[in-house]
## 1
Amino acid sequence: MTASAQVGARVRRARGIRTRESILRAAVDLASVEGLEGLSIGRLAQELGMSKSGLFAHFGSKEELQLAAIDTANEMIIEHVIRPAIANPRGMPRLWSLCSRWLEHVEKKLFRGGCFFTAASFEYDSRTGVVRDRIALMMRTWLGTLSRAVEGARACGHIKASVDPDQLAFEIETVAIGAFWAFLLLDDQEAMAKARATILNRLKSLATPKCPRFAR
Amino acid sequence: MTASAQVGARVRRARGIRTRESILRAAVDLASVEGLEGLSIGRLAQELGMSKSGLFAHFGSKEELQLAAIDTANEMIIEHVIRPAIANPRGMPRLWSLCSRWLEHVEKKLFRGGCFFTAASFEYDSRTGVVRDRIALMMRTWLGTLSRAVEGARACGHIKASVDPDQLAFEIETVAIGAFWAFLLLDDQEAMAKARATILNRLKSLATPKCPRFAR
DNA sequence: CACAAATACGAACGTTCGTGCTATTATAAT
DNA sequence: ATTATAATAGCACGAACGTTCGTATTTGTG
């Protein structure tokens, strides 16, 4: 197959990709509310005003749709949380931005049902299979991103050298999950602000004199 | 209706109540894995070797089954976590036992799928209706129990008077949820032990000289 | 314009869902 | 032992589920 033929094929598939993307955007939103298992193809097709079979053809199975939805949600996190955070200078500013935006994506309802990955985590935490594995992978990757940001702050001398990056990353994520829980289930309107303050205090307590001002 | 007729009716209903209880025990286990919405009557009947309609007659609707399952899970928590904890002397020992047993119920798999209420929390946190309301009520009640134990410890002079019971209760619950997440989804075998240590350290940091030794 | 590929649709498959009805069995009181 | 009623089973229902298939429509390219 020549390069031009590949390009031709890619161009020809342009429309399919576009609708596939719109399907996945809706799927992520729906799944964040109804759960990845509760997500149904008929319901999704109805919401998009298209046929069940037409939608189905894009994925071939429900499981593939679920996996694609997870990937889409992940890309949304990269786009709205990680990428803008990475734009900040390395060290504490970047780390704090990562934390703040991770909390923000729930407040701003990036996903209709709150945090897609937290919901998926607890939906699949006692199952087996590729869907569970993919969710676990995403969460490990996210923890890794957080951990590397901590490591970066340590390398910059913004936080004490004694800090364990993995440990602190996990602590931060725990505070966030707790906040999501209080905010979404218990309707605690101040939960997110309290979590932001908790993380901020924790980071400040670890900061060195060399650390620049990082929270506006 | 006379009193004896009521007693008679109650006795007559003995068998029904027994099977109802066995249904609910299985329902709680199944729901802790598949979710309260994924819990299906046919599947449950099959697991118990009884007919769908026979099982259904005990509840009248799926929603009633879900609510009854929530109540049953709650009673299991009271039985296996709260009651034995309350048996400890008021103050720090009782508070610590509450924390430790709350973590323990997941390690010991009181529910097949880990923590019934944490799973249900994140399944229903962006829905409306009586099921969600019941789950939220249970979690608020649990937080209240935890908070009252903190208050008791403060009244005993076991922890500093400056401690905010609601705040500390929430912190403890957050650590627990984070541990469940790491233990169940990420297969972190040390997550529960780490959470136990985290809470223990936190409590010790708040303890007064008057506080008795409380962790074996 | 014509052709071929990509895309979407409609209908139907077998299964399972929750939920009614009716009949049958089990049980406790008389 | 008879009887009233509680408890369970059997059967059927309409709807929704994921999935398959053949056909129609749209699309970009030659």
## 2
Amino acid sequence: MLNDLQLDKVFHALAHPWRRWILGLLLDREASVQEFAAALPISLTAVGKHVNLLEGYGLIRTRKEGRNRLCSVEPGALLAAERWLRNAMWSRYRPRLGSLPEDLTLLRLR
Amino acid sequence: MLNDLQLDKVFHALAHPWRRWILGLLLDREASVQEFAAALPISLTAVGKHVNLLEGYGLIRTRKEGRNRLCSVEPGALLAAERWLRNAMWSRYRPRLGSLPEDLTLLRLR
DNA sequence: GCGATAGTGAACCATTTGGTTCACTATTGC
DNA sequence: GCAATAGTGAACCAAATGGTTCACTATCGC
């Protein structure tokens, strides 16, 4: 279970479109920093910083393979964030759902 | 469905412990800015700013009742964030789950 | 009517963020 | 061996973040 400080980091990491894009790619397969930079409109240096942040905050792992830095996803952090959200809504909001309007059509929690 | 720019905002809003705390309380019941300030170690002004951010980013609604500003949760944004996370993991990571280690014990996706 | 309470607005401040460029190292492939 | 590729580190910069204090307005309760 992640503590508050770690949740700060996970949500902060997710609060940027290019970091979400990188994570999306890594959920499919491993990839290098260069691959990200080729697709994103920022410099390789900037991409490197995003990767550093993702790794420092525990959302990905990286390893050096030759001159490439290969990244892979570390699912625990994402799962913890998802669980925090789901748990917050379940344990508190859910009991009131009967009295609430059409927001509920969004609820797919089985 | 929220677009990238709105997801940025939702995740950014969640990336602060006091904003998560405020949301947690609001998932139970309505509350005023003053109530938050009484429990948090920051000034009423600072709390007001967090509330402004949460409202501006669409996570809560507020209405003025007398001298109080009553806040209530706007569940759509939270649901969208939760769905983005769940969907990212489902549609991409899930297919590989068979080949993955004990991370999976965390997976409660049914 | 008046003091206490709830909230806002403005000004200010330090730190973080997200980006750049330039210089550099290390590896690859011909 | 050498040019091209992948990445890092340092310096720099503008804007955003998260907080403060002080002054102010509006409402409440006696």
## 3
Amino acid sequence: MSQHRQPGVPGRAGAVPALPDLPEATVARLPEYLRALHNLADAGHETISSEGLSASAGVNSAKLRKDLSHLGSYGTRGVGYDVALLIEQIEYVLGLTQRRAVALVGVGNLGHALAGYDGFASRGFRIAALFDADPSRVGEEINGLVVRHVDDLPAVAAQESIAIGVIATPAPAAQRVADQLVAVGVTSILNFAPCVLSVPEGVDVRKVDLAIELQILSFHEHRKASLTALPATGGSALTALPGGLAATDTQEAIGT
Amino acid sequence: MSQHRQPGVPGRAGAVPALPDLPEATVARLPEYLRALHNLADAGHETISSEGLSASAGVNSAKLRKDLSHLGSYGTRGVGYDVALLIEQIEYVLGLTQRRAVALVGVGNLGHALAGYDGFASRGFRIAALFDADPSRVGEEINGLVVRHVDDLPAVAAQESIAIGVIATPAPAAQRVADQLVAVGVTSILNFAPCVLSVPEGVDVRKVDLAIELQILSFHEHRKASLTALPATGGSALTALPGGLAATDTQEAIGT
DNA sequence: CGCGATTTGTGCACGTCTTCACAAGCGCCT
DNA sequence: AGGCGCTTGTGAAGACGTGCACAAATCGCG
């Protein structure tokens, strides 16, 4: 409770509370903890041990404690963490104390779904505007929002500050949209288009590619199959192999 | 080439060519390389250097070379990689030589979009069946497929082998669906529901949470803002802070 | 008031991933 | 045929992330 100054981090009094720069891996897990904490709060828990929370979030308890310690969190030894307080802290660190405005570009198949996705609103975001380049889509109303032409982006951005841009266009259009977003001052982009975006330094891009996830699973599926493979059947997968590949007697890659 | 026995991996003669067990990080990048390679092939390139390919895929060239070396790939020094051959190799390793069947459970907002997403079909997957628990949705036709009740899963799975299950249900239903998928022999699951799934060993689960991506971006946004923050304005972000948090005077993070 | 049960916070060791830098190999040109 | 420039493949070092195991701290109870 005491207002005392923290040792360890020297000087520089009175500045913004200033986020400790967390390891990326930790940042990526915080939202997961947050979701678990909300569940626990709804279930009536006032405190939770690292063991319990880590189970809820599906991670190792030591990892969780280390993550929380990075943000200077106050747990109580012998008791655990105060659920409500921890929620506040994580939401603060993640910058969720203000409801951030999201602009969604591309209201095709996927964009349509994103525009209607409850998960955004319920977790601190507000879809502020929808855009598309296709004139026939402009004017359409989705979930109470009217689709505007992507060229109106500057006008909309001038009216309300857009924190995050979401790109749900086909790949060929994505780079141009990204440039437009950057031009109006957006510094965080979530890209659903299957392509790499080049953006100036200082702009963060995260990419979600649904097909890639499937391909990763496919690899493991393939791998499991090749391990289980009955030696007798000899080449179920092999037959599918194009001729050229047969030469790849991949040999042993330094093993172990 | 020589048929010689492989050292390192003992016994188990005559087995499938056997995937080298790649580092997870490498596996996650292979699909990205594959996409870049397809683009290059379409553009008429016959060979490509690691430098060129890595630029297309948005990674470091040394990393790319090491990744490719893991799968025993044959590049040619002084020339580069044969685009067509590399595509074949990566597709083989990822198990994309056979078009895998995907079962999609939950045709709500997101599921609907996934069912209509071209990216799956164009990259080696085939949506084999759609399911939902809501009787009012059963029978609906999406993209040429009829939505069936999730309880029909065993019947469908008996007819054709499902390689991957995709869960696009609300969180409360996800675990039950996962259990049902596992029960019919699915060993790879892509989960879009915001919750952790518990599955038996040997089953792979990958999770995609759209809100989490936004929250990660939000953190960086918040961080950038706190660094740029004019010291004079004193507390744009601070004012939003709930009382209890004020104690976290974590101060300036080592800067740089 | 002191003790034991409980749980956090963290030092340390280990494994994985990344990056640099360079030798080895290949093709082309003279 | 020989040399030169280019590109791959990889050793080694460093950064990063993970998980164990334990000391330090707190609470509740007798």
## 4
Amino acid sequence: MKEEQTICYSCANENCFIKKHLHLAEMESFISKKQNVVCKKSDQFITEGAPMQGLYFICKGKVKTVKTGIHGREQIVRLTKNGDIIGFRGFGTGKKYLIGAYALEDTVLCNFSNETMLEILQHVHEFTYDLMLFYADELNKSENNIRKIAHMNVRERVVDLLLYIHRKFGQVDGLIDIDLSRKEIADFAGTTEEQAIRVLSNLKKEALIKSVGKRIGILNVSELRSEIMEHKYF
DNA sequence: GCATTAATTGGTC
DNA sequence: GACCAATTAATGC
């Protein structure tokens, strides 16, 4: 799964947390220690409960992170793309990954070991400060998700997911630019595949969305948004 | 082209 | 709203 290093300085990924701090001279010695990992679609590169082996930064591609519940049912916790960080929740206490991670398409990852991360945190204060803000932001998002799952019905949760991936991944040729199976849509919305499919068919009948194969396109963003307005989408 | 997997729909509890 | 079954569509080999 390993390949030669991508060079951070010439990396095209402007969203990257590392890239944003490259102007700091102290970063130079650390970025040479990263390991690149290349995953094919549906490869699992983090196992829930496995010992931490550093943080992953997505260089290119898309990844889902999941928590497994009883009866093997999975809850998708996050959907991530290039520039996002994976594995950070288990960081600090440092022992185990708290989530599993799968590539949703062919993906290139940059892996920084626990030791390297700790060194960066101790020596590059601007980086540490920004990461702190990042954690605060993520905590807020998690709490919003708790509220959503608690207060929204199935239809609202599916609509919320559609608007979310629409905003995060954008649409190409009128279709949202991410491949999710119906099962994965259900795993994110906290319901079953059949329920998710029913909601999608209804939305299609109402001409709010369209679908080509597994890809979904949103036809009426404002109408969908108004459906979940009362849940304070923004 | 055949076989396995995913998507869809209808029905029951 | 979950679970099961049957049918159909899609995809891998």
